[in-house]
Design a protein that fits this description.
iron-sulfur; iron; 3 domains; LytB/IspH; four-stranded parallel beta sheet; binds iron/sulfur cluster; alpha/beta; EC 1.17.7.4; Cobalt-precorrin-4 Transmethylase, domain 1; metal ion binding; 11 helices; flat
């Protein structure tokens, strides 16, 4: 068997920034630090922070006044931010700049009267934060069929969740053009996502099995697994080395490895080491 690594994988710039801010904050404030949901979608990283004293909460009601709250890399809704300041919390806003850009563009389209269409996952925290900002004045779609149902509009603004599939985003454009005289498209899929998707697709074309490593809740990791499956290669999305199964491989297989933007290298290295130790 041969292992081939994707040249672009692992922590992106936004996740690195978020994780480093969280590490520094925990060092300074120890037991006084709360995280509003998982700051990134990787269970091993969240476990790491929990062991160092961070408490994960689902709402601000669980946070004592004057504590520190760390927001997600996916963004925080303006309403929640306002509530946090009212409680005199110190807010460490780790929102990725690419997510902030989506928020800004959505705000611009809203102010200028566009019918806003967002290519995204309806329940993803990034989308919820954008919707809150524009008072739910947008249609979130994930397929061509949802676009087909849109009535004719004077002008449409089209944006995407930062971690969506770039190939699927492009496919929706002709359908949207049929719905309006003016279509403004902002490619808001982040650079790290596009790079990881492109290098994963290239790798999937050359191997017999793809192992995609990262949180099951991680949108960008799930997209990488989808891309590999669409390419027709046998694909396994795992979170840790313990999920690898012997029966997935044949002795002559070329195994491609990639990981999501929220997957730390130490998790990926454990997978590679296990493969080398037990299957070579
Ligand atoms: S995947 Fe993109 S949008 Fe998400 S944290 Fe990384 S750089 Fe930011």
């Amino acid at each position: 068997m041969k292992i081939i690594l994707s040249p672009k994988m692992g922590f992106c710039f936004g996740v690195k920034k978020s994780v480093n801010l969280a590490k520094d904050t925990i060092k300074k404030r120890k037991n006084d630090v709360y995280m509003l949901g998982s700051i990134i979608n990787n269970p091993q990283v969240i476990e790491y922070f929990k062991k160092r004293g961070a408490k994960i909460v689902n709402n601000l009601g669980e946070v004592p006044e004057e504590s520190v709250i760390i927001t997600r890399a996916h963004g925080i809704s303006p309403l929640l931010l306002h509530q946090a300041y009212q409680k005199r919390l110190s807010v460490i806003d780790t929102t990725c700049p690419y997510v902030k850009k989506v928020q800004e563009i959505a705000g611009y389209l809203y102010k200028n009267g566009y019918f806003i269409v967002i290519f995204g996952d309806k329940k993803h925290p990034e989308i919820l934060s954008v919707l809150d900002l524009i008072q739910n004045n947008a249609l979130v779609v994930s397929s061509f069929y949802e676009i087909e149902k849109i009535k004719q509009q004077k002008k449409i603004g089209f944006i995407s969740q930062t971690t969506k599939n770039i190939y699927d985003f492009k496919k929706l454009l002709p359908a949207l053009l049929n719905k309006t005289e003016e279509l403004r498209i902002f490619n808001t899929i982040c650079k790290a996502t596009i790079e990881r998707q492109k290098s994963t697709l290239e790798l999937a074309k050359k191997v017999d099995v793809m192992i995609v490593i990262g949180g099951k809740e991680s949108a960008n990791t799930s997209r990488l697994a989808e891309i590999c499956k669409k390419q027709g290669v046998k694909t396994y999305h795992i979170e840790t080395e313990n999920q690898i199964k012997y029966e997935w491989f044949h002795p002559d297989d070329r195994i491609g490895i990639t990981s999501g933007a929220s997957t730390p290298n130490w998790v990926t290295n454990k997978v590679i080491n296990k493969l080398k130790k037990e299957y070579f």
